[in-house]
Design goal:
2 helices; three-stranded antiparallel β-sheet; 5 strands
Length: 89
């Protein structure tokens, strides 16, 4: 999907409230979506790279911070460099 709208995010998540970040697909390739409940998690920081979505979350209940990285690995060796360096905050 090139665009993830609110109705699409809700249909994937199943209920309100919902927040999300995404890396759009390119044709039939790539595409990453990260969906979370804003009543449970706060998005502290994020970065969308060429092949990844990196998120730093804080759990609202206990302020625990953690990172999540969604990756789509390219099949082109020359693009691997962009993949690895897209993960850094």
């Amino acid at each position: 999907m090139e665009i993830v709208s609110r109705p699409i995010a809700i249909s994937l998540w199943g209920w309100h409230p919902v927040k999300w970040l995404y890396l759009p697909s390119v044709g039939h390739s790539r595409g990453i979506i990260v969906i979370w409940d804003p009543q449970v998690l706060e998005l502290a920081e994020s970065r969308i790279g060429l092949f990844s979505v990196c998120c730093k979350f804080k759990t609202l209940e206990d302020n625990f911070e953690w990172d999540l990285i969604g990756v789509y690995g390219p099949n082109d060796d020359h693009m691997g460099y962009s993949l690895v360096f897209g993960w850094r905050f």
